[in-house]
Write a structure and sequence with these properties.
Helix content: 40-55%
Radius of gyration: 24 Å
Distance between the termini: 35 Å
Strand order of the largest sheet: 2-3-1-9-8-11
Largest sheet: 6 strands, antiparallel
Number of strands: 19
C-alpha cells in the first residue's frame, strides 16, 4: 500500500509549488516508508510514498507511460487481485509491460479503456492518472471503499490525497468545521456521511465512484452500485457459489513478495480466511503465521455479555493448533491503549472509535515487526447478516441508524446553544431515511428479503466503511497493509440477492457462510456465536482515561472546557455503564472519545464556523 496526493492548476501560471507538494506528501510517509518520489509538469504535480509489496525492485511511482504519442502518469494506492487476467487482455491489445507490478496494469487499463477502467478491476484501490493530452486528472476509488481518497480546492487549485492531513498541509486549506460536520462527530462518529470529510469543504470520493478534473471543473460519477436481482438458487447451490467466490478471493489476496500473515480471533470470519490461507501455504510446504489480540488484565476482569459471551484466546489457540499455524498472542498494555488514543486520532484525522482504534494501532505496530501484509475478517457481518438489525426490523425501521443505541449520549453533554442538538437529530434522521430510499429492492421481495436488503445497504454504506477506515488508518500508520477478502465485490453482489431464508437458515446468523465453509472448520469454531473485536475489561483503563479527561477539562482554552456540561458529564459517570454505539462503546469508551475530541480540536487547530 502507499500514499498518493497531487495538485492540479489550470488557471494560474506557475501556481504550483513543489515544496507544498512535498510537505503534503511527507505527512503520509507512514503509509509508504520504502520509497518516495514526485512528478512535476506545467499543470500537475503528483507525489507518492511506496510500501513495496509486489515487485519491490520495480514499480517506482509516479509512473509514466507513453502510448500513441501521448503521456500518462499515475499515482496508485492499492492491490489489484485480477492482475493476471487484465494483464493478458492488455497484452493482446499491444501493451508491452516493463514490470510485474499491478501499478503498470492499472495505468494501461486507463490508457486503453479510459474512464471505464475501474469496471475492469477487482481489488482495493484509489488512484489518479494525469492525462497530458486531454489535460485532465482521472480519479477512481474501489467499489467498497477499502482505500481512502479525499479532495478539496484551494482557490483554483484542485488537491487530492489519501488522508485529510495531507490536504490540511496546504497553506490555503483551513481546518474548519461547520454545523453539519459537528453533528456528524457528536451523533455518528466513527461513522460519517458518505462523501463527507467532516472538515468544511473537504470531501471524499465515494466508494464505487470515478471522474475527472479538467478546465471545466470536477465531474464524478458512480461506475458501480449494488443492484437487486432475482436469485433462484437452492441452498446447496448458494453455499457452493459462496464457497467458490470466497476461496477464490482469499487465494488471490495471498499474493505477496513480502511476509504475509492473518489476524485470527477464533471467530467465524477470521477463521474462514485463516483456514483457506493455511491450506494454500501447506500446498507449498510453508507455515502460515497468525496473530490474535488480548488486553492486559482481561483474563482476571472479563465480564460476559450478550454480545461478547466469551473471550477469543481459547478459540484462537485451538484453531491455530488445529490448522498448524505459527501463532502469536499479542497483549496490549493498558497504559499503551490509553496513551495511543492521541496517536489514533492523528492517524484517523478525526476522533474515531476511542480505544477500539488505539488498541488496533498498538497491535498493528507489533505485527509490523515481523510482517508487512495481513489478511483480516472485516465485512462478513455486513454482507452475510451478522448484526441484529438484519433480523429485528424494529431496530431498522425507526428514524435513526440502528447501530447507535443512544444517539443523544454524546451531544447532550455539550452546550446546546452551540450544537443545536434537535436540529442535528432531525438532519441525521433525514439522511438516514434518504439512505433507505436509495436501497435497491424488487417488487417481488418478501418483507424479510426487503429488510435484509435495507440492512445490507445501510451496513455496507455506513457501518462497514467506518470499520474499513479504521483498519486502513491504524494499519497504514505502521506501514502494514491489511487486506480484507470479504470485501471482494463479487461476494457482495451475489450474497445481496440470495433469499434471506437461506442466509438465516434455522434462525442462525450468517448461516449461508457457515454452510458454505463447513468443510474448512471444526464445529467448535463453525458454530461459535458472533463475538466482536475485543475490548479491555481492566478497571484500570477507566481510571486512567478519567484522569486524562479531568486534566483536559482543566485546560481553560480547550473545547471541552468551553462546551461540555460538567454536571451532565458527572451524572453520566455516576450512572450505570451504558452502551451508546455498537456493541463495544460504553462509558470508558465515551470518556476516551471525549479526550480524542478535545485533543483533535487542539492539535488540528479546528475552527468552528
Amino acid at each position: 500500500m502507499c500514499s498518493i496526493c497531487g495538485m492540479i492548476e489550470f488557471e494560474q501560471k506557475n501556481g504550483l509549488n513543489p515544496d507544498v507538494l512535498n510537505r503534503m506528501g511527507m505527512t503520509m510517509k507512514h503509509r509508504g516508508p520504502d520509497q518516495t518520489n514526485a512528478f512535476y509538469s506545467e499543470f500537475a504535480m503528483l507525489h507518492h510514498n511506496r510500501l513495496s509489496v509486489i515487485d519491490p525492485e520495480n514499480g517506482l511511482q509516479p509512473m509514466t507511460a507513453e502510448w500513441q504519442g501521448e503521456k500518462y502518469t499515475i499515482v496508485y494506492n492499492g492491490e489489484l487481485y485480477n492482475t493476471p487476467e487484465l494483464r493478458d487482455e492488455l497484452s493482446r491489445l499491444g501493451v508491452i509491460f516493463k514490470t510485474h507490478c499491478d501499478t503498470e496494469v492499472v495505468l494501461y487499463a486507463y490508457i486503453l479503456f479510459g474512464e471505464r477502467c475501474p469496471e475492469k478491476m477487482n481489488g482495493i484501490f484509489a488512484f489518479g492518472v494525469y492525462d497530458e493530452g486531454k489535460k485532465q486528472l482521472f480519479l477512481a476509488r474501489d467499489r467498497i471503499g477499502v482505500k481512502p481518497l479525499f479532495y478539496t480546492k484551494a482557490g483554483s487549485t484542485f488537491l487530492f490525497a489519501s488522508e485529510i492531513k495531507a490536504l490540511l498541509a496546504h497553506p490555503d486549506v483551513q481546518p474548519k468545521i461547520d454545523r453539519v460536520g459537528l453533528w456528524q462527530l457528536l451523533y455518528l462518529t466513527p461513522v460519517t456521511i458518505g462523501g463527507s470529510g467532516v472538515f468544511q469543504n473537504i470531501y471524499e470520493v465515494k466508494p464505487g465512484y470515478c471522474g475527472v478534473f479538467s478546465e471545466q471543473g470536477l465531474r464524478l460519477r458512480p461506475y458501480w452500485t449494488l443492484e437487486a436481482r432475482e436469485c433462484h438458487d437452492t441452498p446447496q447451490q448458494a453455499a457452493m457459489k459462496t464457497r467458490e467466490l470466497l476461496t477464490d478471493a482469499i487465494s488471490r489476496q495471498l499474493v505477496s513478495d513480502v511476509p504475509l500473515c492473518t489476524f485470527l480471533s477464533g471467530g467465524l470470519d477470521s477463521s474462514v480466511i485463516t483456514s483457506v490461507a493455511a491450506g494454500e501455504y501447506r500446498r507449498y510446504g510453508e507455515t502460515l503465521s497468525t496473530y490474535s489480540f488480548e488486553y492486559e488484565g482481561n483474563k482476571e476482569n472479563f465480564q460476559s455479555s450478550l454480545f461478547q459471551p466469551q473471550g477469543d484466546d481459547e478459540f484462537a489457540l485451538f484453531l491455530a493448533e488445529w490448522l498448524g499455524t505459527s501463532h502469536t498472542v499479542l497483549t496490549a498494555p493498558t497504559l499503551s491503549v490509553a496513551k495511543k488514543l492521541f496517536d489514533a486520532t492523528l492517524a484517523r484525522d478525526i476522533p474515531g472509535q476511542a480505544d477500539i482504534d488505539s488498541s488496533l494501532l498498538y497491535f498493528c505496530s507489533q505485527v509490523k515487526e515481523g510482517h508487512t501484509v495481513a489478511l483480516s475478517g472485516e465485512c462478513a457481518d455486513e454482507i452475510f447478516g451478522g448484526y441484529p438489525w438484519f433480523y429485528r426490523p424494529g431496530m431498522l425501521y425507526r428514524d435513526f441508524f440502528p447501530w447507535i443505541h443512544n444517539p443523544k449520549a454524546r451531544i447532550q453533554l455539550f452546550d446546546d446553544g452551540v450544537v443545536k442538538a434537535e436540529d442535528g437529530y432531525d438532519y441525521m434522521s433525514t439522511v438516514y431515511q434518504q439512505s433507505i430510499r436509495e436501497c435497491q429492492t424488487l417488487d417481488t421481495d418478501s418483507f424479510e428479503d426487503q429488510t435484509a436488503r435495507v440492512a445490507t445497504w445501510l451496513s455496507v454504506s455506513y457501518f462497514m466503511t467506518s470499520l474499513l477506515e479504521r483498519k486502513d488508518r491504524m494499519s497504514m500508520a505502521n506501514g502494514l497493509e491489511v487486506r480484507v477478502p470479504f470485501s471482494d465485490h463479487r461476494i457482495l453482489e451475489y450474497v445481496y440477492n440470495v433469499p434471506w431464508k437461506i442466509k438465516f437458515e434455522n434462525q442462525t446468523e450468517k448461516a449461508l457462510l457457515r454452510n458454505a465453509m463447513a468443510e474448512f472448520l471444526p464445529d467448535k469454531i463453525l458454530y461459535r456465536k458472533k463475538s466482536p473485536y475485543p475490548k479491555t475489561h481492566n478497571p484500570l483503563y477507566q481510571k486512567v482515561v478519567t484522569e486524562l479527561l479531568q486534566k483536559r477539562l482543566e485546560q481553560k482554552g480547550g473545547v471541552l472546557h468551553q462546551l461540555l456540561d460538567t454536571k451532565k458529564l458527572q451524572e453520566m459517570l455516576e450512572s450505570e455503564n451504558t452502551t451508546w454505539f455498537g456493541q463495544l462503546m460504553a462509558t470508558p469508551q465515551l470518556i476516551a472519545w471525549l479526550i480524542q475530541f478535545d485533543f483533535w480540536f487542539e492539535q488540528y487547530q479546528v475552527q468552528m464556523v
